[in-house]
Amino acid sequence: MSERENVEAAILGLVEARGADKSICPTEAARAVGGEDWRPLLKIVKAEAVRLAHDGRISILRKGKSVDPDDFKGVYRLSLPR
After folding, report:
1. Model's pTM, two decimal places?
2. Contact 26, 49 (CB under 8 A)
3. What is the DSSP code string of 17-69?
4. Is 13 helix (H, G, I), strand (E, B) or coil?
5. At what angle do helices 26-34 and 3-18 cross, to 10 degrees?
6. What is the pLDDT of residues 6-38, one digit of tens each?
7. Of the residues 4, 23, 25, 68, which has the maximum number of CB atoms within 10 A of its CB?
8. What DSSP element (H or E) covers 77?
9. CA dihedral in degrees (24, 25, 27, 33; nearest 10)?
């Protein structure tokens, strides 16, 4: 599996395990894939989160509300679509 595929699997697995109305921090997905060396994966996590949000498979949240995947910055969380 490629790094991108591993990140996608980690995001989907974590949000599904967390369940409806709960969210994960992007760093959780990066840590699941990269272990101790997770920081370089944050750009890949964000790119995969945007792609998965466009596909309707996850939601990107800021301050608890869904945001446009193409227009957000700062701290965000990931969840199952509402």
Report:
1. 0.95
2. yes
3. HH-TT-EE-HHHHHHHHHGGG-GGGHHHHHHHHHHHHHTTS-EEEETTEE--T
4. helix
5. 130
6. 999 999 999 999 999 999 999 999 999 999 999
7. 23
8. strand 77-79
9. 10
Tokens linked to 73 = 């910055």
Residue 78 bridge partners (DSSP): 24, 60
28, 13 contact by CB (below 8 A): no
- What does the block give as tokens for 9? 């699997």
For residue 19, what are its two tokens? 């369940």
Q: Tell me, what amino acid is at 2?
A: S
First to last CA, the chain: 29
Which residues are CB-neighbours of 23 under 8 A, at least 6 positions away? 15, 61, 77, 78, 79
DSSP state of 74: S
Is 4 in a helix, a strand, or coil?
helix
